[in-house]
């Protein structure tokens, strides 16, 4: 495993590695997405000998993520990429076995591509080597927070986490500090952020736009159905939004927009999804692939309604020219749990406020008896 090495821990990360590879690939035969082997970065290989790209899947433990990753891995192989599945969390000794297996390839890789700079696993891997070229691809809206924290020189902390350091964070603080230095541009090291999100990257970081060209070339256009589809979020599971408020708003959105399907986030709990199905009368769908691919393949509603999340930025790109409208429902302050991070409201508002111009904004207007949702 040499040349270019990608580490992915989620289906969306692997999708965006495919999108990145597509932007670096000379056009392939008709009907293909470009041949599968990324063209080299300037100065890393000859123009006639593209550097090979190997994807290492650091497998998660939850079944839904594993299933989506298995299917995404096959799509990547179909595009000509080499994919290695690593049981990185498979019980005692998995970490040591993974580090031993990856130490050599890490040292010899010209470019390393990662999807989650906040991942403790990835941060630990970054302490083992200093790649000449580093690319960060999207794994949700965390890319926005990563770029902002890197620019401000802050330690890397997920936006929904509280600021105080617990025992585990204190132990891992040296790892995080070194990883942050490895994630910043320096003499002899370039850093690229490949993203569909509006980021303010610090000086020296190259930002490359992800327009979901591979997704559009590979799938669709979709068949459009009547009504709307709702997109779920893990804001309840991450401790940000109150479960009762969330369920009530989902029901109100379904009634207002004539939605019949609810596309579950892969981290949503079975108990919450059951409650949504019963109380909101929605068909809960657990997607087999990232939503950008599911929507592009169709069938899909003429309107897709989401809470603040990455899809309000990615779906307009993936579905460009199809006639599908995307709407985002703002999260009202009273929906937040008392234990939510102080940064939560501002971050979620930023996700909504920076969505594409063609995305409709839905605002919650409080009445004595019910939350009413309408277009803002």
What descriptive keywords fit this protein?
seven-stranded parallel beta sheet, 12 helices, 376 residues, seven-stranded mixed beta sheet, alpha/beta
Question: Please, could you describe this protein's structure?
Answer:
- The protein has 376 residues and is of the alpha/beta class.
- Helices cover 36% and strands 21% of the residues.
- The chain has twelve helices and 14 strands.
- The strands form two sheets. It has a seven-stranded parallel beta sheet. The chain has a seven-stranded mixed beta sheet with strand order 10-9-8-11-12-13-14, sandwiched between helices.
- Helix 1 (11-23) links the parallel strand 1 (3-8) and strand 2 (53-58).
- Helix 8 packs across helix 9 and helix 10 runs parallel beside helix 11 (311-318).
- The longest helix has 16 residues, at 63-78.
- The relative contact order is 0.12.
């Amino acid at each position: 495993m040499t040349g270019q090495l990608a580490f992915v821990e989620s289906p969306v990360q692997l999708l965006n590695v495919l999108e990145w590879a597509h932007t670096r690939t000379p056009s392939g035969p008709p009907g293909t997405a470009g041949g599968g082997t990324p063209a080299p970065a300037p100065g890393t290989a000859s123009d006639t000998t593209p550097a090979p790209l190997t994807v290492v899947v650091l497998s998660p433990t939850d079944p839904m993520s594993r299933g989506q990753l298995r299917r995404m891995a096959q799509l990547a192989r179909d595009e000509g990429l080499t994919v290695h599945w690593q049981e990185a969390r498979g019980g005692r000794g998995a970490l040591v076995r993974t580090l031993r297996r990856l130490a050599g390839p890490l040292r010899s890789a010209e470019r390393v591509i990662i999807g989650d700079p906040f991942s403790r696993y990835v941060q630990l891997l970054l302490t083992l080597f200093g790649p000449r070229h580093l690319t960060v691809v999207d794994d949700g809206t965390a890319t926005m927070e990563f770029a902002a924290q890197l620019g401000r020189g802050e330690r890397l902390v997920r936006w929904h986490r509280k600021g105080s350091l617990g025992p585990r964070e204190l132990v891992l603080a040296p790892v995080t500090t070194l990883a942050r230095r490895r994630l910043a541009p320096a003499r002899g090291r370039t850093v690229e952020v490949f993203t569909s999100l509006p980021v303010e990257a610090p000086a020296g970081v190259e930002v490359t736009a992800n327009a979901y060209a591979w997704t559009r070339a590979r799938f669709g256009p979709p068949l459009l159905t009547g009504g709307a589809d709702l997109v779920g979020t893990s804001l309840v599971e991450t401790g940000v939004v109150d479960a009762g408020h969330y369920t009530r708003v989902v029901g109100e959105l379904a009634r207002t927009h004539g939605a019949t399907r609810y596309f579950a986030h892969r981290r949503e709990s079975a108990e919450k999804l059951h409650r949504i199905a019963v109380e909101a009368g929605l068909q809960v769908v657990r997607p087999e692939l990232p939503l950008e691919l599911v929507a592009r393949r169709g069938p899909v509603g003429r309107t897709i309604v989401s809470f603040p999340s990455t899809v309000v930025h990615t779906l307009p790109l993936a579905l460009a020219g199809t006639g599908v409208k995307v709407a985002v429902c703002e999260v009202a302050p009273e929906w937040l749990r008392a234990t939510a991070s102080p940064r939560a409201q501002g971050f979620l508002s930023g996700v909504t406020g920076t969505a594409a111009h063609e995305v409709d904004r839905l605002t919650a207007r409080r009445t004595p008896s019910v939350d009413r949702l309408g277009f803002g």
